[in-house]
Amino acid sequence: MSYKNFPMVSNVIFGRGSFNQLSEVIAPKRLSMKAPFIYIVDDVFKSNSWITSRIPLSYDDRIIYESSKEEPKTSQVDKLVEDIILNCKERPSGIIGIGGGSMLDLAKAVAIMLTNKGETKDYQGWDLVKNPGLYHVGIPTISGTGAEVSRTTVLTGPTKKLGINSDFTPFDQVILDPELTKDVPKDQWFYTGMDCFIHCVESLNGTYLNAFSKSYGDMAYTQCKEIFLEDSLSLEAAQDQLMMASWHGGMSIVYSQVGVAHAMSYGLSFVLGTKHGIGNCIVFNHLEEFYPEDVKLFKAMKLKHNIKLPTGICANLSDKDIDTMIKISLSLEPLWENALGKNWKKTITPKKLRQLYLKM
After folding, report:
1. Using one digit for the tens of pLDDT, what is the confidence trace for 61-80?
2. 22 is in which domain, residue-wise?
């Protein structure tokens, strides 16, 4: 039997205030005075000097602010790459993403596309990247997506939403500073935290499950229940725990896969532009048939934190839009196989997915 040899993040720092060490971490990686570090930063921090004043700019280093209001797109990556090539005297020393999953995914994709020819959309899929990307660093400012540790960068392309899933995608360096999550709005904290919870549910209930995935998934699942259902943690302890749950949740799918919620939320995102975290929540809320006990837990968490999910978002969609969502969802075959086994097509039909989408 042959096993996949997966790369992992090679360096990680964890701790409150560790963001302050960024300068000393990246200094040895600078290639020359003319080879800048490019910071891709969520534009929500544009006027937040508590964060921006600590970004160590030297020589030709520059910050590019990007919006996270929409899911990252392949065309957005292509534009960023072109802008960097045109405005840098030399190939950058590295790409540094600061923000949530969208910024981390953008940073990973830009690092890859600066060393690989063609358009970003051509690399959506599994193991299509040929050349190692530039040195890239991930600094999450919200916890739950697992983007800081995953080997994929999820992007919406012209015909599909699908990640660049490759050995060259994981970050070379991650800085986990729980202090950076202190100003996350409550609803977003919940949606992104539930992304982690759903990662674990889909991994732990999947047919791809093995001891590697189970050990990480069990840990993150337990942490999520403690954070979102119990009152035993201080605010700081909960921030620390959720940052580690995000890491473990991302690790749980390295040797596994996600499942029904992710497959269907990709369809929502492509047609409606629904953000990943809330999209997963909207879908998972209707998946009792597949994850009965965990949907009960999810609804208890939702009630405890007084979270109101949007309803009726698919009610007025055209047949064409619903068909597009179904097509996107069904194209994610590894996710369905993990959720339901090799014979998943006997259970999951276009009619079945239509019924589920119309509940949302």
Report:
1. 999 999 999 999 999 999 99
2. 11-181
